[in-house]
Design brief:
Blueprint lengths: L7 E14 L4 E14 L6 E19 L2 E18 L5 E18 L2 E19 L13 E12 L3 E14 L1
Antiparallel strand pairs: 1-2, 1-8, 2-3, 3-4, 4-5, 5-6, 6-7, 7-8
């Protein structure tokens, strides 16, 4: 079972695929995400967790007619997860939280910086590595597949769809 009856902190590293659209940008980029979390003892049939995450949402550059166009975005998130505390090797969960994002654009020599705090919502699945029978102690490790959405607004609106797959380890 991925979400066991004991409380525990955990850390995870994920590969994040971000699709970010705005009036001036349409970016698909892969980048890392690092998560630190804590899961609480189950309450009835539900397991709750809290997570802090750093996400490099994108880092893109292109040269058009001799001019360099660069854009990058970083985000820090605080999320709350609610999952079933069943004995299944696959655990679905819901995510809700807040994200603080910073976007920097250098378009034809004009640098703009934008930031915003916005809601993040998502769904995902945690897969218990022990259920795979790998022949060694996985100590509660799990693989996570996650889909989340966030909309950052400043002078421009950035709609982000985030898909990630990662490896998480309790400590």
């Amino acid at each position: 079972m991925v979400f066991s009856s004991r409380r525990s902190p955990y850390v995870g590293v994920s590969s994040l695929e971000a699709n970010v659209e705005s009036a001036s940008l349409d970016i698909d980029d892969s980048s890392p995400s690092i998560t630190i979390g804590y899961k609480y003892a189950p309450v009835g049939s539900l397991q709750f967790s809290v997570e802090l995450a750093y996400m490099k949402m994108f880092d893109e550059s292109d040269t058009i007619s001799g001019s360099t166009i660069e854009s990058d975005a970083d985000a820090f998130g605080l999320s709350f997860l609610m999952a079933s505390s069943s004995n299944s090797s696959v655990t679905p969960y819901l995510r809700a939280g807040v994200v603080y994002g910073e976007v920097e654009n250098n378009l034809y020599g004009t640098v703009t910086e934008e930031d915003d705090t916005a809601a993040i919502i998502g769904v995902g699945l945690d897969f218990d590595l022990a259920a795979l029978g790998l022949g060694f102690d996985t100590r509660g490790s799990f693989v996570r597949v996650d889909y989340s959405e966030v909309e950052l607004e400043d002078t421009d609106t950035y709609d982000a769809e985030l898909v990630s797959i990662g490896l998480f380890y309790p400590f």
